[in-house]
Amino acid sequence: MKILQYLALILTLTPVVTFAQNTPSMVSIGERISIQSKVLDEERSIQVYLPPSYYYGDQSNFPVVYLMDGDYNFHYDTGLIELLSSVSEEIPEMIVIGISDKGAEKYRNYCKPTNGTEKSGDADRFMSFIEKELKPFVKQNYKASDYDILIGHSLGGLFATHYFMSNPSAFDAYIAIDPSLWWNDYKAVEDADSVFNGVKELKTQYFISLADTKGMGVMPFVGVLDKYFPHQKQWHFMHFPDESHNSVGLPTIKVALKKLFAGWAMNRDKFMALNGAEDLIDYFVELKTTYHTSFALPVGLLGNVVYYYRDKPTELDKLEAGIKEHFPASLNEFYVQKALLYFEKAEYDRAAEVYKMNVNLHPGSFKSYDGLAQVYKAKGDIKKAKEMSRKTIDMAKKAKVRQWQLNELEAHAESIAAGVSK
Fold this sequence. Notes:
The chain has helices spanning 2-13, 70-87, 104-111, 123-141, 155-166, 183-195, 218-228, 249-260, 268-272, 277-290, 299-308, 313-326, 331-344, 348-361, 366-378, 382-398, 403-418, and strands at 31-37, 42-49, 62-67, 95-99, 144-153, 173-177, 205-210, 235-239. It is an alpha/beta fold.
């Protein structure tokens, strides 16, 4: 009996530690879908990455990257593209289509050029699948612009190079990463010498890289390009002697995309050289024409520009007019930034007026709801602040914002609930 009493005492004094039952949730960077191909007579899978602002509105579209060997390369490519676009604003946001393989044997066959030799592959058939079925599917189902990029690595790079020589106008840019141009006794190099002979000008961009590998056939192919197009800027060779065949993809794509969209990044010196807001609009209108894409202006840049013109109402009016005419997808962000100017000067009624106007124009503007929540909080109306904060999170989830953005909005809601100024 004493032993039982002792155990009971121990259990009474010992704290009971419990752990919450956490239900794991998937962290996703895209979706996988299947389409039926009549050209290939089989079902094909693709992975689709959509950029962070994809669901913010319907007035913009996005360049599309088509990625060979998509299941293998999709994760690192999409992460790099999001870093370069929405995070650092060095390139525009893009859609990425990762083309899945159906096993190594079939993938190799579809990458090898169709040229009537004993080692001939079925690349032309796969090109037909991309042109007749995959591209139309993407254009029909996603907010895709008419600017397309094809990326291939190794045998995928051989495929991209064959595509470039066979149908250069099919893509606006081809990126061949350490391509296997050694295939079939360097047949691609031999073909290039006849394909480019007599061609005065390349009509599309072509990027080719080489790692620390030997015998890939890259240098002889570059020699052919240099022979026929010694002064043209449409082709680019990148050598990465410190990278292996498997690691060279990341630096190749980074350098290629930054070169391809070299005018996109707007640093301080470039901005200060412009003569006002109209010049800024004209600058990006030219880019929109060049890349035949209805861009939204880079968010960070737009916020900095609005702040720079905070004491120049004429320039702000010109900026607003230019955005309305040429970049309607950026009007929501413009009004958010304009309202923030009033908020920071404690002109809460004027800030609320702009936020409310923006909500009427853009019902899904979660940033405007968040702004209204901050206004009501600053004015001491916690009840309305909480209401707006709840709407903010609902709208943000509908817009499928990235988790870090949702974390920030939820932190705002907690701050409002606690009645703490921020």
